[in-house]
Design goal:
This protein has about 80 residues and is of the alpha+beta class. The protein has 2 domains: about 1-35; about 40-80, no CATH class. The chain is built from 4 helices and 3 strands, in the order βααββαα.
């Protein structure tokens, strides 16, 4: 569903109810600016993003990436 920022401002309760079941795309001055979503959907998306980055970190570690702390410690040892 799409609505203008003015509509959402004037009928926030209505649009927050709608956002519980489907995203509400909010337009301001003719541009899509934000999306209202249910908190549960936000949590689900956050968990997906966390899982994605955890997988990327695990892959990088398997490929030999040691991280910034170990890299700094290594450099300090070399220059000591």
């Amino acid at each position: 569903m799409e609505a203008t920022a003015t509509e959402v401002k004037n009928k926030f309760g209505k649009f927050s109810d709608i956002a519980r079941t489907e995203p509400v795309i909010v337009e301001k001055t003719g541009r899509k600016t934000i999306v209202l979503i249910a908190f549960e959907e936000y949590e689900r998306l956050t968990q997906l993003e966390d899982a994605y980055w955890a997988e990327k970190a695990a892959s990088a570690e398997l490929e030999g990436y040691v991280g910034s702390e170990k890299s700094i410690a290594f450099m300090r040892e070399k220059h000591a």
